[in-house]
Design goal:
The protein is of the alpha/beta class. It has one domain (5-195): Rossmann fold, CATH 3.40.50. Helices cover 34% and strands 24% of the residues. It has a 5-stranded parallel β-sheet with strand order 5-6-7-3-8, sandwiched between helices. Strand 6, helix 6 (156-173) and strand 7 form a beta-alpha-beta unit. The chain is globular, with a radius of gyration of 16 Å.
């Protein structure tokens, strides 16, 4: 089975020369759920490198099949509907408007948020914003989903809602997951835990 993510001797340094990501070797297999135990800024640096959003200062990264990323504070264009925000990765990929909107609606419905498609992000609660971010991260059908403490500041009911949506999508889509659960609330069970 070919890995979806391979990192070999990856390091990243901050402006002050200190290691944001210490020397790291990591392999993530298809459908594997890997929990990373570390502080938030270190995971954010690792996540950006793993997802192809930043280059490491040292080492090699191989990402097969693309990555979707849910940041701790998902950003949305407030002047665009939730549907259009979810479709942004497809717009960037040059997908035609009708196909993009259909895929975005499917992604929203898959996380039980279809009812919010034509509203604006400012009208969403925190859990709904996280669900919309999850839909946006998965709209391109990536091989790897990266989550940074997605249950932070959610109550038990909201965490259960987000967890249910994630579990259902993982079951049907079969992507691998690399995540940090800093709040202590696990959204999905880990197949493996690594300390960074």
């Amino acid at each position: 089975m070919e890995p979806v993510l391979t990192m070999k001797n990856v390091c990243a340094y901050g402006p002050d020369g200190r290691a944001l990501v210490p020397p790291t070797d990591l392999t993530v297999l298809p459908r594997e759920r890997v929990r990373v135990v570390t502080e938030g800024p270190r995971f954010e640096a690792l996540a950006r490198i793993a997802g192809g959003l930043a280059e490491p200062d040292v080492g090699e990264v191989c990402l097969a099949g693309g990555a979707g990323y849910v940041a701790p504070e998902p950003g949305f264009w407030e002047g665009m509907t939730v549907l259009d925000n979810v479709g942004l990765p497809l717009l960037a990929a040059g997908v035609p408007k009708r196909e993009r909107r259909d895929a975005a609606m499917d992604a929203l419905e898959s996380v039980s948020l279809g009812y919010a498609a034509h509203t604006y992000p400012r009208g969403l609660g925190l859990c709904e914003r996280r669900l919309a971010a999850l839909a946006r991260a998965l709209v391109t059908r990536p091989a790897l989903l990266i989550l940074s403490d997605p249950s932070s500041m959610l109550d038990e009911k909201e965490t259960a809602r987000l967890s249910g949506a994630l579990a259902m999508r993982w079951e049907t889509a079969g992507f691998a997951v690399l995540y940090r659960a800093g709040s202590g609330r696990e959204l999905i069970p880990a197949d493996r835990t690594i300390d960074l």
